[in-house]
């Protein structure tokens, strides 16, 4: 049952990384869209694309936190007492990002709009970097069993920094892909071309960072590197093939196919990480079974998780469908 709950937890991580990541990536393109006039239409596209869904996607983060502290309380405590700096920065980034996004819409003056837009955009870059750094710290075994690990080196290390950079670039890639489809639905070919070029550039950067990341893992987290090329190899291959196919679809201006392939590429590499990490929850010293809560707690949590998914998934699907059909403007 502990393995089942771990799969449920990791499923939430994947969903948040994909859908929440696309929202964070939109903030990256908002940051780099240019001045007030040159960036006005791209920013308007970003606002219309993420406006109805950006807060709803945090459902997956709340879901992951609740499952983690209920099912694996000792591991949750170890993570929180070691990686509290990047997690605190990420939480602050989420709050500031939401505030900046909301206040920008009602700013009465250009100066206020710029400040709120900058807060939204910068927070959209800092937050995924911190989440990527947290993942790197956990995967490289820098969270001790009893917690209270080094507050600095646990997330400022080669694996964590690489993970943070990769998280930012992958979020930017997903956002550009989603924006390409949204621009097509709005029949704005110039914005579609704008988003497509950025998706191609982000894909190239993400691919380069991934290759560099393999060398970083080999020297800094050898066990994870070894298992990634054995237990997670099939998922890595699927990710590479889906990523290459997405590039072809982008070049051929097939945004609908690109969206599916991009999600598959990102999801597959995340699942590959999970497969490489198994059966451990923290590094290679805390297993899923040893960190699990008692059986009755896991049984109750399983029931609650199923009920939550039955309620949440259709609701989010309806939200995304209405947003794609522009019924929420």
Question: What topology emerges from the helices and strands here?
Answer:
Layout (H helix, E strand, L loop, with lengths): L1 H30 L8 H11 L8 H13 L1 H10 L1 H22 L4 H30 L18 H28 L3 H32 L1 H7 L4 H19 L3 H23 L2 E3 L3 E2 H4 L3 H30 L5
Antiparallel strand pairs: 1-2
Helix pairs in contact: 1-2, 1-3, 1-6, 1-7, 1-11, 1-13, 3-4, 3-13, 5-6, 6-7, 7-8, 7-11, 8-9, 8-10, 9-11, 10-11
Q: Give me the number of helical elements.
A: 13
Silhouette: globular
**Helix/strand order:** HHHHHHHHHHHEEHH
Low-confidence runs of at least 5 consecutive residues = none
Biggest sheet statistics:
2 strands, antiparallel
- Share of residues in helices: over 70%
Rounded radius of gyration (Å): 20 Å
Number of strands: 2
Mean pLDDT across all amino acids: 91
Strand fraction: under 5%
Termini gap:
44 Å
In order across it, which strands form the biggest sheet?
1-2
Structural class: mainly alpha
How would you characterize this protein structure?
By secondary structure, the protein is an all-alpha fold. Helix content is 79%, strand content 2%. The chain is built from 13 helices and two strands; from the N terminus they run H-H-H-H-H-H-H-H-H-H-H-E-E-H-H. It has helices at 2-31, 40-50, 59-71, 73-82, 84-105, 110-139, 158-185, 189-220, 222-228, 233-251, 255-277, 288-291, 295-324, and strands spanning 280-282, 286-287. Strands 1-2 form a two-stranded antiparallel sheet. Strand 1 (280-282) and strand 2 form a beta hairpin. Helix 7 (158-185) packs antiparallel against helix 8. The mean pLDDT is 91.
């Amino acid at each position: 049952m502990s393995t089942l709950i771990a799969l449920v937890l990791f499923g939430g991580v994947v969903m948040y990384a994909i859908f929440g990541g696309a929202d964070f990536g939109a903030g990256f393109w908002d940051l780099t869209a240019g001045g007030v006039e040159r960036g006005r239409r791209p920013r308007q596209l970003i606002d219309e694309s993420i406006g109805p869904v950006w807060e709803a996607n945090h459902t997956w983060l709340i879901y992951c936190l609740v499952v983690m502290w209920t099912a694996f309380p000792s591991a949750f405590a170890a993570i929180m007492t070691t990686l509290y700096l990047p997690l605190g920065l990420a939480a602050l980034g989420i709050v500031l990002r939401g505030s900046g996004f909301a206040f920008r819409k009602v700013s009465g003056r250009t100066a206020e709009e710029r400040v709120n837009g900058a807060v939204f955009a910068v927070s959209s870059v800092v937050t995924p970097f911190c989440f990527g750094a947290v993942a790197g710290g956990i995967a490289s075994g820098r969270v001790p069993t009893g917690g209270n690990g080094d507050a600095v080196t646990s997330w400022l290390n080669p694996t964590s920094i690489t993970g943070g950079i990769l998280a930012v670039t992958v979020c930017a890639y997903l956002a550009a892909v989603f924006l390409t489809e949204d621009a097509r639905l709005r029949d704005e070919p110039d914005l579609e071309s704008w988003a497509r070029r950025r998706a191609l550039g982000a894909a190239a950067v993400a691919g380069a960072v991934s290759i560099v990341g393999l060398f970083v893992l080999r020297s800094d987290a050898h066990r994870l590197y070894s298992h990634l090329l054995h237990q997670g190899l099939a998922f890595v291959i699927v990710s590479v093939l889906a990523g290459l196919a997405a590039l072809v679809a982008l070049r051929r201006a097939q945004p609908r196919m690109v969206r599916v392939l991009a999600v598959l590429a990102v999801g597959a590499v995340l699942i590959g990480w999970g497969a490489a990490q198994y059966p451990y929850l923290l590094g290679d010293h805390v297993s899923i079974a040893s960190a699990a809560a008692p059986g009755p707690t896991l049984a109750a949590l399983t029931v609650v998780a199923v009920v939550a998914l039955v309620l949440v998934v259709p609701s989010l699907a309806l939200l995304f469908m209405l947003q794609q059909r522009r019924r929420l403007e």
